[in-house]
Amino acid sequence: MRVLHGVALSVDPGEIVALLGGNGAGKSTLLNCIAGLLAPRAGTILWEGQDLARVRAHEIVERGLAMVPEGRRLFAGMTVQEHLDLGAFTPRARAVRQASLERVFALFPLLQERRRQVVRALSGGQQQMVAIGRALMSNPRLLVLDEPSLGIAPRLVRTILAALAEINRSGVAVLLVEQNVQAALALAHRAYVLESGWITLEGPAAAMLSNEHVRRAYLGPLATRA
Amino acid sequence: MSTLAQQIVLGILIGGLYGLAAAGLSLVFGVLKVLNVAHGELIMLGGYAAFWSVALLGVDPFGSLALVAPLALLAGVVLYGALFGFVVRANEETREKNSLLIGFGLALVLHASAVRLWTADERSIVTPYGGAVISLGGLSIPVVRLLSLLLAFAIIGGLQLLLTHWRWGKAIRATADDWQAALLTGIDVRRAYLLAFAIGTGLAGAAGVLVTVSYSVSPSIGLEWTLKALIVVVLAGLGSMIGTFVGGILLGVAEALSAAAFGGPYREVVGLVLFVVVLCARPRGLFGR
Known about the structure:
The complex is a heterodimer. Chain A is α/β, with parallel strands linked by helices. Chain A contains eleven helices and eight strands. In chain A, the strands form two sheets. In chain A, strands 4-5-6-1-7-8 form a six-stranded mixed β-sheet, with helices on both faces. Chain A has a two-stranded antiparallel sheet with strand order 2-3. In chain A, helix 3 (80-87) runs parallel beside helix 7 (124-136). The longest helix of chain A is centred in the last third of the chain and has 16 residues, at 154-169. The N and C termini of chain A lie far apart (38 Å). The relative contact order of chain A is 0.19. Chain B has one domain: ABC transporter involved in vitamin B12 uptake, BtuC (Orthogonal Bundle), CATH 1.10.3470. Chain B contains eleven helices and two strands; from the N terminus they run H-H-H-H-E-E-H-H-H-H-H-H-H. Chain B is globular. The A-B interface holds A 35-37, 56-58, 61-62, 66-67, 69, 73-78, 82, 85-87, 89-90, 93, 134-135, 138 and B 167, 170-171, 173-174, 177-178, 180-189, 239, 289.
């Protein structure tokens, strides 16, 4: 089935880009294509001048593009430390493993405390920290996140989003799919709206916040709640 | 009473080999989601490799492990490249169906080749210490079988260490749990498949050596060992090699008890009944996640 149609999306170095859209718009499909879990039937995915469309997913990680998948997808029986060790699996990441570890622990001090715990015992928000930590251990230049706040207590959502801003300040570009549109737009520099497989709107995040269509379609219930 | 205790001891001794036989099957099934029904035939081949290296090269029966296990590992690499490497590219449902066909085909070919090459006769290895028995409070423990049990346990322990401490061991566990997440972590999942399959075949080879040294080998033992291994995998569940080993011993003891209670012919039946009961009551196995 064809899910994506007219998609032209770019992320510049150092940028935070939000990708908005309702359920079934094709956001996850797009991210899975970028990360190499799905092979696009047509089109190109350019990364630092090279087409990623036929590159296998683990090599994409080696090239500096890491994804935190929807639902975190941790390894059930493993400890926090094992996740972080595995995160630095590729040769390029292994070379800077110690520095990456310090960076993750500085970002999420809780993970250092809990590093011997099996991830099953952690809360949803803590598990999300592990998932982001695991991705960061690969020393990416672009971090792609699919719904990082899904099923997480509001207090921890703020921690997670603040961490993303911090990660971005250290020079990592971020591509973010997020249900919490208000928060996503507050964080992002630019945003795209994906609807039924088409990019229907793009622009600076601040402009999106005041866009009538975006407000009606994606901010309605949240705006009244806030 | 003492005959019952003796039966239990013998059950434990063979149960360790059930556990080792099951470990390879469990690893391959858990990681590749491929049920290799030719696993017992690989055990049979390992047994013949041990038999011939003792007969022709004159190595120590247990020493032949050092020769056969690496050979089996290599055979696993070849088998994966020739047969199973294509299957794992399909989605999981197709994978299970195709792997069953390939496995049955492979089992038939290996069985027929073994009959042709080595006749259908049963062969066993005669060792200088073969008849040695340890007597312990009225129980007699055959030394060769005890050594086999200890070696099986050592191999399982080594495997467990490999899976928890080696970089690729962790990668294999991650792949077994969630191959997509493993890919996103930067793990070459196909290499993890290859390694798991090779190790699984190596374990089959090692099990074949111990089976042949302790008991005997013939071309037809394959199906029987596949069945035992399958029962143990269902009994123990996936995910823990030590659990698999314990599951093997449980099956050995259960068989011994049923042979004592209902007579030798019912030995096999109880294993299958256990299989069904555990499937109904605890589909994930006794130690499975």
